[in-house]
Task: structure prediction
Amino acid sequence: MRLLITGGLGLLGKEIDAVFHGRAEVRTTDREDWDVTDPAACRREVDGFRPDVVIHCAAWTAVDRAESEAEAARLLNVEGTRNVARACRERGALMVAFGTDYIFDGGSSRPYREEDPANPLSVYGKTKWAAELALREEGGDHLLVRTQWLFGPAGRNFIGTILEKARRGDALRVASDQVGCPTFSRDLAGAVRDLLGAGARGTVHFSSKGETSWFGLARYVLERCGLPAALLSPARTRELPYPAPRPVYGVLSKEKFRAITGRSPRRWEEAVGEYLEMIDSEGGAR
Ligand SMILES: NC(=O)c1ccc[n+]([C@@H]2O[C@H](COP(=O)([O-])OP(=O)(O)OC[C@H]3O[C@@H](n4cnc5c(N)ncnc54)[C@H](OP(=O)(O)O)[C@@H]3O)[C@@H](O)[C@H]2O)c1
Result:
Protein backbone atom coordinates (compact mmCIF):
# COMPACT_ATOMS: atom_id res chain seq x y z
CA MET A 1 0.00 0.00 0.00
CA ARG A 2 1.20 3.52 -0.83
CA LEU A 3 0.17 5.96 1.87
CA LEU A 4 0.36 9.75 1.81
CA ILE A 5 -0.14 11.78 5.02
CA THR A 6 -1.03 15.49 5.34
CA GLY A 7 -0.34 17.39 8.56
CA GLY A 8 2.24 14.74 9.41
CA LEU A 9 3.94 16.71 12.20
CA GLY A 10 0.72 17.25 14.16
CA LEU A 11 -0.64 15.42 17.20
CA LEU A 12 -2.33 12.74 15.13
CA GLY A 13 -0.18 12.85 11.98
CA LYS A 14 2.94 11.68 13.83
CA GLU A 15 1.11 8.68 15.31
CA ILE A 16 -0.40 7.77 11.94
CA ASP A 17 3.10 7.86 10.48
CA ALA A 18 4.41 5.61 13.29
CA VAL A 19 1.56 3.09 13.06
CA PHE A 20 1.98 2.56 9.31
CA HIS A 21 5.76 2.61 9.34
CA GLY A 22 6.97 -0.70 7.89
CA ARG A 23 3.43 -1.73 6.87
CA ALA A 24 3.12 0.60 3.90
CA GLU A 25 5.21 2.81 1.68
CA VAL A 26 4.62 6.05 3.54
CA ARG A 27 5.20 9.65 2.50
CA THR A 28 4.59 12.06 5.36
CA THR A 29 4.16 15.73 4.55
CA ASP A 30 3.54 18.87 6.51
CA ARG A 31 2.66 22.44 5.66
CA GLU A 32 6.21 23.12 4.39
CA ASP A 33 6.01 20.33 1.79
CA TRP A 34 2.37 20.56 0.92
CA ASP A 35 -0.04 23.39 1.69
CA VAL A 36 -3.47 21.75 1.41
CA THR A 37 -5.17 25.11 0.82
CA ASP A 38 -3.46 25.21 -2.60
CA PRO A 39 -5.45 23.05 -5.08
CA ALA A 40 -2.51 22.83 -7.50
CA ALA A 41 -0.22 21.58 -4.71
CA CYS A 42 -2.83 18.91 -3.85
CA ARG A 43 -2.91 17.65 -7.44
CA ARG A 44 0.87 17.77 -7.67
CA GLU A 45 1.36 15.73 -4.45
CA VAL A 46 -1.29 13.13 -5.22
CA ASP A 47 -0.33 12.79 -8.90
CA GLY A 48 3.34 12.65 -7.97
CA PHE A 49 3.19 9.99 -5.24
CA ARG A 50 0.23 7.99 -6.64
CA PRO A 51 -1.03 6.87 -3.20
CA ASP A 52 -3.63 4.17 -2.61
CA VAL A 53 -4.68 6.03 0.54
CA VAL A 54 -4.34 9.66 1.68
CA ILE A 55 -4.71 10.23 5.44
CA HIS A 56 -5.64 13.88 5.87
CA CYS A 57 -4.48 15.06 9.32
CA ALA A 58 -3.86 18.72 8.43
CA ALA A 59 -6.44 20.97 10.04
CA TRP A 60 -7.14 24.16 11.94
CA THR A 61 -7.58 22.90 15.51
CA ALA A 62 -7.34 26.13 17.53
CA VAL A 63 -10.99 26.08 18.67
CA ASP A 64 -11.04 29.47 20.43
CA ARG A 65 -8.89 31.31 17.88
CA ALA A 66 -11.28 30.19 15.13
CA GLU A 67 -13.92 32.53 16.61
CA SER A 68 -11.85 35.58 15.63
CA GLU A 69 -10.09 34.05 12.59
CA ALA A 70 -13.07 32.36 11.00
CA GLU A 71 -11.97 32.79 7.39
CA ALA A 72 -8.54 31.26 7.99
CA ALA A 73 -10.14 28.32 9.82
CA ARG A 74 -12.66 27.85 6.99
CA LEU A 75 -9.97 28.00 4.33
CA LEU A 76 -7.89 25.27 5.96
CA ASN A 77 -10.66 22.99 7.21
CA VAL A 78 -13.22 23.29 4.43
CA GLU A 79 -11.26 24.23 1.30
CA GLY A 80 -8.24 22.17 2.38
CA THR A 81 -10.44 19.09 2.79
CA ARG A 82 -12.21 19.75 -0.51
CA ASN A 83 -8.89 20.15 -2.36
CA VAL A 84 -7.48 16.91 -0.97
CA ALA A 85 -10.77 15.08 -1.62
CA ARG A 86 -10.84 16.28 -5.22
CA ALA A 87 -7.26 15.26 -5.91
CA CYS A 88 -7.98 11.83 -4.34
CA ARG A 89 -11.12 11.34 -6.43
CA GLU A 90 -9.30 12.30 -9.63
CA ARG A 91 -6.52 9.79 -8.80
CA GLY A 92 -8.83 7.07 -7.47
CA ALA A 93 -7.22 7.16 -4.01
CA LEU A 94 -9.11 6.45 -0.79
CA MET A 95 -9.23 9.51 1.48
CA VAL A 96 -9.28 9.20 5.27
CA ALA A 97 -10.35 12.39 7.08
CA PHE A 98 -11.12 13.29 10.71
CA GLY A 99 -14.17 14.86 12.28
CA THR A 100 -15.09 16.04 15.76
CA ASP A 101 -17.82 15.82 18.40
CA TYR A 102 -17.94 19.65 18.15
CA ILE A 103 -20.30 19.25 15.18
CA PHE A 104 -22.98 18.27 17.73
CA ASP A 105 -24.83 20.69 20.01
CA GLY A 106 -24.48 18.57 23.15
CA GLY A 107 -28.22 18.14 23.67
CA SER A 108 -28.17 14.34 23.44
CA SER A 109 -28.87 12.13 26.45
CA ARG A 110 -27.01 9.12 24.98
CA PRO A 111 -23.71 8.74 23.10
CA TYR A 112 -23.84 10.32 19.63
CA ARG A 113 -24.26 7.91 16.73
CA GLU A 114 -22.81 8.53 13.29
CA GLU A 115 -26.20 9.43 11.75
CA ASP A 116 -27.28 11.89 14.47
CA PRO A 117 -27.99 15.41 13.16
CA ALA A 118 -25.21 17.96 13.33
CA ASN A 119 -25.75 21.38 14.89
CA PRO A 120 -22.33 22.89 15.57
CA LEU A 121 -22.13 25.72 18.12
CA SER A 122 -18.68 27.14 17.38
CA VAL A 123 -16.87 28.43 14.28
CA TYR A 124 -14.47 25.46 14.53
CA GLY A 125 -17.42 23.02 14.71
CA LYS A 126 -19.06 24.72 11.73
CA THR A 127 -15.90 24.47 9.61
CA LYS A 128 -15.48 20.79 10.51
CA TRP A 129 -19.11 20.06 9.59
CA ALA A 130 -18.73 21.98 6.30
CA ALA A 131 -15.56 19.93 5.68
CA GLU A 132 -17.57 16.71 6.09
CA LEU A 133 -20.15 17.99 3.61
CA ALA A 134 -17.41 18.95 1.13
CA LEU A 135 -15.84 15.50 1.45
CA ARG A 136 -19.18 13.80 0.71
CA GLU A 137 -20.02 16.25 -2.10
CA GLU A 138 -16.76 15.41 -3.87
CA GLY A 139 -18.10 11.87 -4.05
CA GLY A 140 -14.79 9.99 -3.90
CA ASP A 141 -13.99 6.86 -1.91
CA HIS A 142 -13.62 7.96 1.71
CA LEU A 143 -13.58 7.11 5.40
CA LEU A 144 -14.34 9.83 7.94
CA VAL A 145 -13.39 9.09 11.55
CA ARG A 146 -14.95 11.40 14.15
CA THR A 147 -13.05 11.63 17.39
CA GLN A 148 -12.63 13.84 20.47
CA TRP A 149 -10.38 15.18 23.25
CA LEU A 150 -7.11 13.99 21.69
CA PHE A 151 -3.91 13.82 23.69
CA GLY A 152 -0.52 12.42 22.80
CA PRO A 153 3.22 13.09 22.72
CA ALA A 154 3.32 14.98 19.42
CA GLY A 155 1.63 18.23 20.37
CA ARG A 156 0.25 20.49 23.05
CA ASN A 157 -2.83 19.12 24.73
CA PHE A 158 -4.98 19.54 27.83
CA ILE A 159 -3.05 17.00 29.94
CA GLY A 160 0.28 18.70 29.29
CA THR A 161 -1.18 22.11 30.13
CA ILE A 162 -2.65 20.82 33.41
CA LEU A 163 0.66 19.22 34.40
CA GLU A 164 2.67 22.31 33.56
CA LYS A 165 0.41 24.58 35.61
CA ALA A 166 0.13 22.18 38.56
CA ARG A 167 3.91 21.79 38.73
CA ARG A 168 4.21 25.59 38.88
CA GLY A 169 1.67 25.55 41.75
CA ASP A 170 -0.95 27.52 39.77
CA ALA A 171 -4.61 27.26 40.84
CA LEU A 172 -6.66 25.43 38.22
CA ARG A 173 -10.34 26.12 37.48
CA VAL A 174 -11.60 23.48 35.07
CA ALA A 175 -14.99 22.89 33.45
CA SER A 176 -16.98 20.19 35.22
CA ASP A 177 -20.08 20.52 33.02
CA GLN A 178 -18.62 19.36 29.70
CA VAL A 179 -18.67 15.61 29.27
CA GLY A 180 -16.70 13.69 26.66
CA CYS A 181 -13.95 11.13 26.43
CA PRO A 182 -10.16 11.64 26.34
CA THR A 183 -8.58 9.75 23.44
CA PHE A 184 -4.90 8.83 22.97
CA SER A 185 -3.70 9.82 19.48
CA ARG A 186 -1.86 6.44 19.40
CA ASP A 187 -5.15 4.56 19.95
CA LEU A 188 -6.81 6.59 17.20
CA ALA A 189 -3.99 5.76 14.78
CA GLY A 190 -4.43 2.05 15.65
CA ALA A 191 -8.17 2.41 15.07
CA VAL A 192 -7.52 3.86 11.59
CA ARG A 193 -5.25 0.90 10.81
CA ASP A 194 -7.95 -1.54 11.94
CA LEU A 195 -10.72 0.26 10.06
CA LEU A 196 -8.68 0.27 6.86
CA GLY A 197 -7.87 -3.41 7.38
CA ALA A 198 -11.59 -4.13 7.66
CA GLY A 199 -12.40 -2.13 4.50
CA ALA A 200 -14.50 0.48 6.38
CA ARG A 201 -16.03 3.37 4.45
CA GLY A 202 -18.33 6.28 5.33
CA THR A 203 -18.44 7.76 8.84
CA VAL A 204 -17.25 5.94 11.98
CA HIS A 205 -16.84 7.26 15.54
CA PHE A 206 -13.80 6.45 17.62
CA SER A 207 -12.75 7.55 21.13
CA SER A 208 -11.80 5.74 24.33
CA LYS A 209 -14.38 3.87 26.38
CA GLY A 210 -16.14 5.61 29.26
CA GLU A 211 -16.77 9.30 29.84
CA THR A 212 -15.66 12.13 32.08
CA SER A 213 -15.55 15.92 32.34
CA TRP A 214 -12.45 18.08 31.83
CA PHE A 215 -12.47 18.45 35.62
CA GLY A 216 -12.61 14.64 36.04
CA LEU A 217 -9.70 14.25 33.64
CA ALA A 218 -7.63 16.93 35.43
CA ARG A 219 -8.32 15.31 38.83
CA TYR A 220 -7.27 11.90 37.50
CA VAL A 221 -4.03 13.33 36.06
CA LEU A 222 -3.12 15.13 39.31
CA GLU A 223 -3.85 12.02 41.41
CA ARG A 224 -1.80 9.77 39.14
CA CYS A 225 1.13 12.20 39.22
CA GLY A 226 1.00 12.80 42.98
CA LEU A 227 0.26 16.51 42.54
CA PRO A 228 -1.93 18.37 45.07
CA ALA A 229 -5.65 18.02 44.29
CA ALA A 230 -6.23 21.21 46.31
CA LEU A 231 -4.97 23.23 43.31
CA LEU A 232 -8.02 22.15 41.36
CA SER A 233 -11.56 23.51 41.53
CA PRO A 234 -14.59 22.84 39.31
CA ALA A 235 -16.13 25.63 37.22
CA ARG A 236 -19.14 26.04 34.97
CA THR A 237 -18.16 26.57 31.33
CA ARG A 238 -19.90 29.94 31.26
CA GLU A 239 -17.67 31.15 34.11
CA LEU A 240 -14.51 30.43 32.09
CA PRO A 241 -13.01 32.92 29.61
CA TYR A 242 -13.24 30.75 26.47
CA PRO A 243 -14.53 32.55 23.36
CA ALA A 244 -15.86 29.41 21.64
CA PRO A 245 -19.06 27.71 22.85
CA ARG A 246 -18.67 23.95 23.38
CA PRO A 247 -21.17 21.09 23.55
CA VAL A 248 -21.86 20.13 27.18
CA TYR A 249 -22.16 16.50 26.13
CA GLY A 250 -20.15 15.01 23.28
CA VAL A 251 -19.66 11.31 24.04
CA LEU A 252 -19.41 9.29 20.82
CA SER A 253 -20.97 5.86 20.39
CA LYS A 254 -18.45 3.17 19.42
CA GLU A 255 -21.05 0.56 18.42
CA LYS A 256 -20.28 0.90 14.73
CA PHE A 257 -16.51 0.74 15.32
CA ARG A 258 -17.01 -2.47 17.34
CA ALA A 259 -19.24 -4.01 14.67
CA ILE A 260 -16.70 -3.27 11.91
CA THR A 261 -13.46 -4.20 13.68
CA GLY A 262 -14.69 -6.72 16.26
CA ARG A 263 -12.84 -4.92 19.04
CA SER A 264 -13.61 -2.37 21.76
CA PRO A 265 -11.55 0.70 22.59
CA ARG A 266 -9.85 0.63 26.00
CA ARG A 267 -11.02 2.81 28.86
CA TRP A 268 -9.78 6.40 28.94
CA GLU A 269 -8.16 5.93 32.38
CA GLU A 270 -5.94 3.16 31.01
CA ALA A 271 -4.96 5.24 27.98
CA VAL A 272 -4.22 8.34 30.08
CA GLY A 273 -2.24 6.20 32.55
CA GLU A 274 -0.07 4.81 29.75
CA TYR A 275 0.52 8.29 28.37
CA LEU A 276 1.53 9.64 31.81
CA GLU A 277 3.99 6.76 32.30
CA MET A 278 5.38 7.41 28.85
CA ILE A 279 6.02 11.12 29.40
CA ASP A 280 7.33 10.42 32.90
CA SER A 281 9.89 7.96 31.56
CA GLU A 282 10.86 10.50 28.90
CA GLY A 283 11.19 13.14 31.63
CA GLY A 284 8.83 15.73 30.24
CA ALA A 285 5.25 16.95 30.29
CA ARG A 286 3.44 17.65 27.05
N1 LIG B 1 -6.97 17.60 18.77
C1 LIG B 1 -8.21 17.19 19.09
O1 LIG B 1 -8.59 17.15 20.29
C2 LIG B 1 -9.16 16.75 18.01
C3 LIG B 1 -10.47 16.37 18.39
C4 LIG B 1 -11.35 15.95 17.39
C5 LIG B 1 -10.95 15.92 16.08
N2 LIG B 1 -9.69 16.30 15.75
C6 LIG B 1 -9.32 16.28 14.33
O2 LIG B 1 -8.22 15.38 14.16
C7 LIG B 1 -7.40 15.84 13.06
C8 LIG B 1 -5.96 15.94 13.50
O3 LIG B 1 -5.88 16.91 14.54
P1 LIG B 1 -4.55 17.19 15.37
O4 LIG B 1 -4.95 17.42 16.78
O5 LIG B 1 -3.50 16.19 15.04
O6 LIG B 1 -4.13 18.60 14.75
P2 LIG B 1 -2.76 19.43 14.94
O7 LIG B 1 -1.91 18.81 16.01
O8 LIG B 1 -3.17 20.85 15.07
O9 LIG B 1 -2.02 19.20 13.56
C9 LIG B 1 -2.45 19.77 12.37
C10 LIG B 1 -1.29 19.80 11.42
O10 LIG B 1 -1.73 20.44 10.21
C11 LIG B 1 -0.65 21.28 9.78
N3 LIG B 1 -1.14 22.34 8.88
C12 LIG B 1 -1.62 23.56 9.23
N4 LIG B 1 -1.93 24.26 8.13
C13 LIG B 1 -1.64 23.47 7.07
C14 LIG B 1 -1.73 23.64 5.67
N5 LIG B 1 -2.22 24.78 5.13
N6 LIG B 1 -1.34 22.62 4.86
C15 LIG B 1 -0.85 21.48 5.39
N7 LIG B 1 -0.71 21.27 6.71
C16 LIG B 1 -1.11 22.26 7.55
C17 LIG B 1 -0.11 21.84 11.06
O11 LIG B 1 1.16 22.39 10.84
P3 LIG B 1 1.64 23.69 11.70
O12 LIG B 1 1.91 23.14 13.07
O13 LIG B 1 2.85 24.14 10.95
O14 LIG B 1 0.52 24.67 11.67
C18 LIG B 1 -0.09 20.60 11.95
O15 LIG B 1 1.08 19.85 11.77
C19 LIG B 1 -8.03 17.17 12.62
O16 LIG B 1 -8.90 16.93 11.54
C20 LIG B 1 -8.82 17.61 13.82
O17 LIG B 1 -9.88 18.48 13.48
C21 LIG B 1 -8.77 16.71 16.68
